[in-house]
Automatic annotation (TrEMBL), chain B:
Protein name: ABC transporter permease
Family membership noted in the UniProt record: Belongs to the binding-protein-dependent transport system permease family.
Positions in coiled-coil regions: none
Pfam families, sorted: BPD_transp_1 (PF00528)
InterPro entries: ABC_transporter_permease, MetI-like, MetI-like_sf
SUPFAM superfamilies, sorted: MetI-like
Chief subcellular location: membrane
Keyword set includes Transport: yes
Topology class, membrane: Multi-pass membrane protein
GO cellular component terms, A-Z: plasma membrane
Ranges that cross the membrane: 12-32, 74-93, 105-123, 158-177, 212-232, 264-289
PANTHER family: ABC TRANSPORTER PERMEASE PROTEIN (PTHR30193), INNER MEMBRANE ABC TRANSPORTER PERMEASE PROTEIN YCJO (PTHR30193:SF37)
Keyword terms, alphabetized: Cell membrane, Membrane, Transmembrane, Transmembrane helix, Transport
Organism the protein comes from: Paenibacillus herberti
Length: 466, 297
């Protein structure tokens, strides 16, 4: 009986043999296809570049005319199709592709955080896209040091591009006299305020001193209005505000630079005073409850939906506020003096994210030519799309006549008063120190801390990461 | 070893694709991380410096956030594992008293198929402060317990527990499904025989269900344990490790040091530590279960 079964099994397996072979071949085939698919997605556009290496030499100011297809990857942080920035980018890219039919611009549009992460991963394997986004000063230094970015000096001299930038702005993107990125803007930190809510709380004038600001916070709080909108889950928001206080208590810019130069340390009275002032705001209930679990966008929306009276942030928000439900009710002022110190014409400066070109780009010349075109037309396009407040480039045009809002004009006037200022913490200090700072400031939102203790946390982190 | 009646190379060829994938996706990254963990490297440039075990030394002795993160991670694991007996109880009850148990189990299973990001956002609105429409605080407010209202996710004291609860809620259905399938797979004739011998109800559970469910139970425990060691997405979505490191676990710490602080080597060392903890505990759990299995059967 058993034998019989065995036998029949054997027969069956003999019958199945060709089938088995087919299965084998199929499996191998599927595997090969899978591998090939992986390969092509990894080197995105790399295949084409091999065919086009000849095109790299022919590029003039108008891009390669060789007629061969060239694909340029353009990583950017304008993913939102409804935003003016996204519109600007797509229109300029379409125009360039039309004028240079052999060039194809491939957009890789990501959120800011996603882009940072993706670029870091790409950098680790040296596969930086042709054009990418970096942040100024200390944040882009590791990329420059690693030799991943191409100097753009030669391209800046073409078509007079260099002269379109505000004086001194390119310094934040320069290392050893080479410019490595071109900024998409230049902003300052201001206090936006909702005029209706101020009136409801009986506040007649904007605060000129920190004490007045505290009074206003209490008056607003008493009316059940959230005084200052903030989303502190993304730690940089609180830091940006804190640094503005520090800019005042230090009596002027340069505190962090002095620390870096060894002239001061974080135990300096200016720093502890700023920490104490910041905590006074927290204690007075200035910020929304649960601020540390609100992300930056949601934090901004508290203001833009008319639920909070103030919003202390970069002037880049002007366009978004004008497009929100509180448009027309909003004014702006400079952060007040703290304990009589500081100058209201000094601002936290926020030079924008910069467009950088990969040093290992297969089409270096074409990429530079495209970026030159892009940046030359950038201010004009932004102006048209009413997104030119906080432009890093000089704009010739009448904002008022072009229909910009009163708020925008107000902000533009503030730009004219700027006499100096500081960069954000993470643009000045090493990433590891910046992270320690960010979480130390976040901690101030949830518990009272001795200012000496906060100073010590900073100093320790600074010493440990020298 | 002729049971399969195929030549060894045939087996080899069919195992190969999977083996290759496993080596490429799991083994190689671990080895590369191990190599990087001995380096001082920012993850960007070519400047790697070999520093031996310095990263590990710093993790174990100088990092003020590491041990609290380990504690939170292990608490996470303990809570997740404590959930399994509860799911087993539910599985037994559903199997016995509910006629169409499958429907119920499918409903319990629903949160598992939802994206963690959606779950995070959902629970964020539940935990929100009252003026942002938080549901829990709303209930507390309406029953006159205003003094207990808190911004749950922003309180260093409660934030971590708030996260545990979400995780337990999400994976309840998952483990219930595993346990329920296990319970259903026990042949009914055993119970019938026991009934004749006078073992019924919970007595039957004690002497039949429990011993036979141990292997399935073990799978759940191991899955719950490893899953909670790797907990990352939910924390990133809901608190990002904040406020001020109060909800940092090993994996978020690893992410922050690698990608935010640009300490690739240090982050790799943290990753290796996590791998080692995983291995040690998996072995530990296995040996414990071997003993349990011998005891109950």
């Amino acid at each position: 009986m058993e034998k019989q079964i065995r036998k029949s099994e054997k027969n069956e397996s003999a019958n199945r043999r060709p089938l088995k072979k087919t299965a084998l071949i199929l499996t191998a085939g599927v595997l090969a296809v899978g591998l090939a698919a992986c390969g092509s997605s990894n080197s995105n556009g790399g295949n084409e570049s091999a065919n086009n290496s000849s095109a790299t030499n022919t590029g003039g100011t108008s891009g390669g005319d060789s007629g061969k297809k060239v694909t340029i990857t353009f990583q950017n942080i304008y993913p939102d199709a409804t935003s003016p920035a996204n519109k600007m980018m797509k229109e300029l890219v379409a125009q360039y592709e039309k004028e240079n039919p052999n060039i194809k611009i491939e957009l890789d549009s990501l959120n800011t955080d996603q882009q940072k992460l993706k670029l870091k991963t790409q950098a680790a394997s040296k596969e930086v896209p042709d054009i990418t986004i970096v942040n100024p000063a200390a944040q882009m230094k590791p990329f420059v040091d690693a030799g991943l970015l191409a100097p753009l000096n030669d391209m800046l001299d073409q078509n007079g591009l260099k002269d379109t930038f505000q004086k001194g702005l390119l310094d934040y993107y320069s290392f050893n006299n080479n410019v490595y990125a071109l900024p998409d803007g230049n902003n300052i930190e201001v206090v936006y305020y909702n005029k209706d809510l101020f009136a409801q709380a009986g506040i007649t004038d904007v605060p000129k001193t920190f004490d007045e600001m505290l009074e206003d916070v209490k008056a607003l709080k008493a009316k059940g209005i959230t005084p200052i909108a903030i989303g502190e889950k993304d730690t940089w928001t609180g830091s940006f505000l804190f640094m503005n206080i520090l800019l005042r208590t230090n009596g002027g810019p340069g505190f962090l630079q002095d620390v870096l130069d060894g002239k001061k340390d974080f135990n300096d009275p200016a720093f502890t005073e700023a920490t104490d002032a910041f905590q006074e705001l927290v204690q007075a209930g200035a910020f929304p409850e649960g601020a540390t679990s609100i992300d930056a966008n949601a934090g901004g929306n508290i203001f833009k939906t008319g639920k909070a009276a103030m919003f202390i942030i970069g002037s880049w928000e002007t366009g978004n506020i004008d497009a929100s439900s509180v448009a027309g009710k909003v004014g702006a002022f400079s952060f007040p003096t703290v304990n009589g110190k500081g100058d209201v014409n000094q601002f936290m400066l926020a030079p924008g994210s910069g467009f950088a070109v990969s040093a290992n780009s297969k089409h270096l010349q074409e990429t530079k030519d495209f970026l030159n075109f892009f940046m030359t037309n950038y201010p004009k396009k932004q102006f048209e799309l009413k997104n030119a407040v906080g432009s890093g480039q000089i704009i010739e045009g009448d904002f008022k006549a072009a229909g910009y809002s009163d708020l925008a004009i107000n902000i533009l006037d503030m730009f004219k008063q700027v006499t100096g200022g500081d960069l954000a913490f993470d643009n000045t200090m090493k990433p590891a120190v910046a992270q320690a700072h960010l979480s130390s400031i976040q901690n101030l939102f949830v518990q009272k801390v001795e200012s000496k203790q906060a100073a010590k946390e900073h100093q320790d982190a600074f010493a440990a990461n020298k | 070893m002729n049971v399969l009646k195929v030549r060894w190379w045939t087996i080899g060829i069919f195992v190969l694709p999977c083996l290759l994938l496993y080596i490429m996706m799991v083994f190689v990254p671990i080895v590369v991380s191990g190599y990087n963990s001995l380096m001082l490297w920012d993850g960007i440039g070519p400047n790697k410096t070999f520093i031996g075990l310095e990263n590990y030394r710093n993790i174990l002795f100088n990092d003020p956030y590491f041990w609290p993160a380990v504690k939170r991670t292990l608490m996470y694991a303990v809570f997740s594992m404590l959930e399994i007996p509860v799911t087993l109880l539910f599985a037994i009850l559903i199997n016995r008293y509910v006629r169409r148990g499958n429907t119920l189990v499918s409903i319990y299973f629903m949160p598992v198929i939802l994206s963690v990001v959606i779950i995070g956002q959902l629970w964020k609105t539940i935990y929100n402060p009252l003026d942002m429409g938080g549901m829990i605080n709303g209930i507390l407010n309406s029953i006159g317990m205003e003094e207990h209202m808190t911004a749950w996710l922003s309180s260093p004291k409660f934030a971590m527990y708030s996260l545990y609860i979400v995780s337990l809620w999400q994976y309840f259905g998952y483990h219930l499904l595993i346990q329920y399938t296990g319970v259903q797979n026990i042949p009914t004739d055993i119970y019938e025989a026991a009934k004749i011998d006078g073992a019924d109800g919970f007595k039957a559970d004690r002497y039949i269900t429990l011993p036979l469910i141990v292997p399935v139970f073990k799978i759940s425990i191991v899955l719950a344990f490893i899953g909670s060691l790797q907990a990352f997405d939910l924390i990133m979505v809901m608190t990002g490790g904040g406020p001020a490191h109060a909800t940092d676990v090993i994996s978020t710490l690893m992410y922050n040091s690698t990608f935010q602080e640009y300490k690739y080597g240090y982050g790799s060392a943290l990753a290796m530590t996590l791998v080692i903890i995983c291995l040690v505990f998996t072995v530990l759990i296995n040996s414990v279960f071997k003993r349990v299995e011998n005891k109950v059967s």
